[in-house]
Amino acid sequence: MKTADPELMRAINRFHVMDAIRRFGPISRVEISQLTELSPTTVSAITAALLDDKLIMTMQVGALRDSTRGRPRVMLRLNPDAARVVGVKLAPDLITVAVTNFCADVLRSVALPIRIDRQTPAVIADLVEDGVRRCVSDAGLEMKDISGLCIGLPGVVERAAGVCRQSPIFGDRDVAFGPQLTERLGVPVTIDCDVNLCALAEHWFGQGRGLNDFLVVSVERSLGLGILHNGELFRGASGLSPDLGDFMVRPSGNEGGRLGDLASETSVLADLETPARSRESDGAHGHGRAIAQVVQRADAGDKRCIAALAAAGEALGFAIANLITLFAPPKVIVSGGEMAHSEHFLGPLRRALAAQLPPSLADVSEIVAREWSDGIWVRGAAAMTLRDLYGAPWNTTGPARPSTAIAEGEP
Amino acid sequence: MKTADPELMRAINRFHVMDAIRRFGPISRVEISQLTELSPTTVSAITAALLDDKLIMTMQVGALRDSTRGRPRVMLRLNPDAARVVGVKLAPDLITVAVTNFCADVLRSVALPIRIDRQTPAVIADLVEDGVRRCVSDAGLEMKDISGLCIGLPGVVERAAGVCRQSPIFGDRDVAFGPQLTERLGVPVTIDCDVNLCALAEHWFGQGRGLNDFLVVSVERSLGLGILHNGELFRGASGLSPDLGDFMVRPSGNEGGRLGDLASETSVLADLETPARSRESDGAHGHGRAIAQVVQRADAGDKRCIAALAAAGEALGFAIANLITLFAPPKVIVSGGEMAHSEHFLGPLRRALAAQLPPSLADVSEIVAREWSDGIWVRGAAAMTLRDLYGAPWNTTGPARPSTAIAEGEP
DNA sequence: ACACATTTATTTGTATAGCGAATAAAAAAC
DNA sequence: GTTTTTTATTCGCTATACAAATAAATGTGT
């Protein structure tokens, strides 16, 4: 915890005000005052400063004069043009880029269906750079208009250092992808675990609005876990994001208990030894098609497909039970592609969950399947950057807090 | 996050100063200033207030004048007599009570070897009340001298509400033990999961000094998990403490995969179907003796005992691997009785851990076995209370933060 | 012995924060 | 047009942190 001074005080309260404006849309000063429990005076002062900085703008009172008398409220909202940021999501066979404004509205996005896993980091950086430049240019902007950029990718990411410790995308370990792109693009680039972005997006725009605690489990080719705790993204020690794929669901002796080898899309396909269209050669969308096929065949009654999906669901349900035991979140969001929505997957997941959970926790968590949407990732990536621009004084989500001298141990 | 005002500012900085004094013993104002990065002016002001409140005291410069010239430093230390608090630890067959001073030094302690599990909460409250009153009186104090009391017990505890959701101690669910004792003793009583107290104690006095992240796994009759994250105790949503016993290590279909049924002392005994001295009738120390016997026989080469301990160690190692995957803590402290120190238990634990951990996390965590000491629990309980008296402005450890209006969702 | 250097602690003065009370602004109600 | 009501701002107050100047307390050197 940083030492407190007037500056921090202002930063905290300013963030509260910004957050209230962001969340509750056009909002008047009185309402902000009520929501934040700051005095009207303070709200007035802070909003004046924000208006001065052009971070927010006034909205002339529109329809909502409910024939109340008194001086009408002046509604405040974020100034969409205060900044533009870029969000990037890397998947093994798809690069998604989006440019958003200060409200996290997507101005322009491009999806590049390119198979990038096992390319060298330099090549991937090239592709990302190209994609970003193109998307920015398509949006009618130049790079100098961009205030920041965040890249989400699966795996274990150390956000503070901008280093990807390990990822299905990169063959190498410890790729300093953030600094690399920062240099290439001349814009501050952060990287983060993709599912963290998803969690932030859910918190800002999706199923997690108004919730201070929830889990996001992403089921794609690999598995991810994002934890929102006490209104903040939770990161492990030294800011590492956990990799749900490395979670073990049974002792490894008996033919591998890695969850990633049991419950991911990849593992389901491997389990079925999907014939024909070998996944290496089939380019970008082969994987997605293969999964869709599996789900279809399961719907049609194919026993093997049903069993494969059920096995995956059960394994994930087992893992989620343990996560609920640890975190007791009121909500668990299962986010993913077609597989994640199939009842052949979700049903066994729920059943396994119910079987494993201790009775005391049986009802604390609601499991919801989140409709897949490409947009949410990049919006989350944008939000991650915006959060910093909004002036968040909590370092929880930003780079790991520089541990104060007092925290260093014996003097 | 609370809104910031000058009061909070002062509270934060005062806590930093208190914490520096607590941790770095007799310490001068200049050193505090360096450690906390507060200005000398501020440190002077805060320490003056603390001295005024008699929370700290000056120490006449002792031996450590290293022939440096200049005005000698005035050393500051906690005033041991600033307050007394009581820590209580409940185990199924043992109640431990300790009275400590403001430095968390134990003034007096009593251990009551009473089998309390399955007694009614009222009876247990009676016993605790008696024990506390006796211990306080033995210390030459009266209840009015006591500033606070914290009770640690195994199970799932909701500290904020003072409610024990579930515990091997109580047959009932949702026992409001905190308020009950508060009324009986006329002193603020908090309750907490015992292993959280242990974690705090390790952080203040033990293996966790200077570490901002570590796990404590307690192996007793039941299993506990305490998480220190970013220098603060981690609690699940709504302040619930997790119960490691409910962690599953294999799908429950095949004869129960609850970790508590596989790796606790109780389960080892059950596994061996310890003959003779039936555990029900043998009063308080039967359990401990039985465990000691198992360890002894394992040391002597008894195959069944070795296997039982190994199975328990493996199960726990499996669970710890998953915890490391999630939290990546630099240290994991395994705390417990004789069983937890036996190499017949720890060896398999380490091996299972090594087998399950992903390579990228193979070396991040050091596993240490913590010598059992009754004292540490009650000292932790005392520390938990002292933390509040020191004025910790973070509600993470205290009662759950009253979620500000802004966090409540849509307006 | 006594001036001087040196380190530590306090005092003084300044800037900034938040907040309550009074005030101004703006619109409906009378 | 005046009053009422609600919203926003201004003014005056207090609390905080901090930098600079000052005081305190000790060792060093002549």
Give the helix/strand class of chain A.
alpha/beta
Task: Enumerate how many helices of chain A there are, as a single number.
Answer: 12
Task: Look at the structure and give the CATH class of the largest domain in chain A.
Answer: Alpha Beta
Shape of chain A: globular
Beginning-to-end CA distance, first to last residue of chain A: 18 Å
CATH homologous superfamily heading of the largest domain in chain A: ATPase, nucleotide binding domain
- On the 0 to 100 scale, the average pLDDT of chain A is 85
CATH structural fold name of the largest domain in chain A? Nucleotidyltransferase, domain 5
Low-confidence spans of chain A: 276-284, 395-411
Reported for the largest beta sheet of chain A, the result is: 5 strands, mixed
Largest interface: A-B, 81 and 80 residues
Instruction: Estimate the strand proportion of chain A.
Output: 15-25%
Gyration radius over CA of chain A:
23 Å
